[in-house]
Amino acid sequence: MYRTHTCGELRLADAGKTVTLAGWVQRTRDLGGLTFIDLRDRYGITQLGFNMERDKALCEQARQLGREFVVQATGTVKERESKNANIPTGEVELIVTGLKVLNAAQVPPFTIEEETDGGDELRMKYRYLDLRRANVRRNFELRHRMAIEVRNYLSAQHFLEVETPVLIKSTPEGARDFVVPSRMHQGEFYALPQSPQTFKQLLMVAGMDRYFQIVKCFRDEDLRADRQPEFTQIDCEMAFVEQEDILQTFEGLAKHLFKTILGKEFAGPFPRMTFEEAMRRYGCDKPDLRFGMRFESLTAPEDAPQEDLVKGHGFKVFDEAELVVGIKAEGCAHWSRKQTDALIDFVKKPQIGATGIVFVKWTGEGLKSTVDKFYAPEVVQQWAARFGMKQGDLLCIMAGKADKTRKQLNELRLHLGDQLGLRDPWTFSPLWVVDFPLLEQDEESGRWHAMHHPFTSPKPEDAHKLESDPGSVKANAYDLVINGTEIGGGSIRIHDRALQEAMFRVLGFSDADARAKFGFLMDAFEYGAPPHGGAAFGFDRWVALFGGRSDIRECIAFPKNNAGRDVMIDAPSPIDGEQLKELGLEVKG
Ligand code: ASP
What we know:
Bound molecules: aspartic acid
Number of strands: 22
Oligomer: single chain
Strand order of the largest sheet: 6-9-10-22-21-20-17-11
Radius of gyration: 30 Å
């Protein structure tokens, strides 16, 4: 037997017992005649004590141990003289009588403690060492508990966990496919699923009624902090449901996770906002509602008719703008010129690309704007009224093309939210965004793309416009947003062959092409397909959010780096000539 207890287990009540522990040497301290070792395993740290007087040889052996040696120690549990209140085992130590090295270790490339001196690349190259750190490991304990609670909730709601294949044919979810060459059918390829979308729909045709899977999905796209080429989704589908049933069911899932994992209860239903309102009021389809700063427009935009308060005063920027829109930063009127200039620099960054900001301050001396030359005090007073401005507030106003300006103002809003400490990771603000457009048009090519995916159904009242006026069709699609992060989304699906064919036509597929790619699904719709819909949630992201992490890689055991590489195993990597030949492949260049 390697051990009688773990390194997180012993307490004062165990004093006097003879026990054996096994683990890693975290730290050795030599204090003259005494040597102490912190022995670590997944469960905690226990102090081992050695004494020159008591056993010189053993003490010397202990002093030889390097960091991360794997050892087994037998001894007697004793109350410590100087206790450590910071760890659960801190009242005791093990007076060691027998010590055995199970495996020696090289000096690790970085410190295996809460705070490490290892940079990103080094941590990933030696991820198995990085994972020994308690604060990293805790992300996986959280991930595990969340997976269990997802299963608990969904099972109680009669969802069946069914596995779907990984070697499939392309499912378009807006990214490129990873492909796998077939040896047996040379020149032919499998695609890895961007999601199990078509299979889960087929499971509904198969009468499974409610399906879920915690499943790997693969998307070949440019990476960002919250994206990985392979990631995990909580993928779900339900038959005989309308949008409302789905929102209720998955709001239930979210509430269950909030309660069981974080101990947080939400009294009422999650707020809902239409896509149109999200874009108009926050400039993005996943607004962070932990704080206000809703947009107000000073022009009279078509989508929210109101009196124009800026045109015709000789200020060219506003006169020529399609939209003049701003936000109110409460209590920021005292900001210095340097601070407001920094905001201008922020929005001028190439990634944002704005030209400037007009400021209005309401200080003890009254209202003052950076465009007082053009606007009489009564006009600026009207602006202030539109924003519900009070003394002490600062307005930041931007102008230009409507869509672009709203996006830029969204960036400024989030930036101000950060600066003002309004985005506390332990405050949670969930939101359903609903009524997405079914399609979006590519500006250059004029082609229509499915905003969610091609299997999403139009709202019944809009279905007749699908081919005549695609841009105006709304979808039965919804996203769950928490703190400005899109946690998941889904839709009610098309379950009728003719409508699915029409959808593919609008998306520019020829009938033959649609049949070749998705004939299996459309065929299934002819054998009794129930109305159905579902959703999928980004599991890695959700874990990161609940763990207070901004980078999902922290919650993935062996993630890829920003260039899509696994630097530990060195993948991707070339394959040898023999293997290429077998696959009937040749690498060019
Ligand atoms: N398959 C979709 C996705 O991966 C989710 C869904 O529509 O259920 O985003």
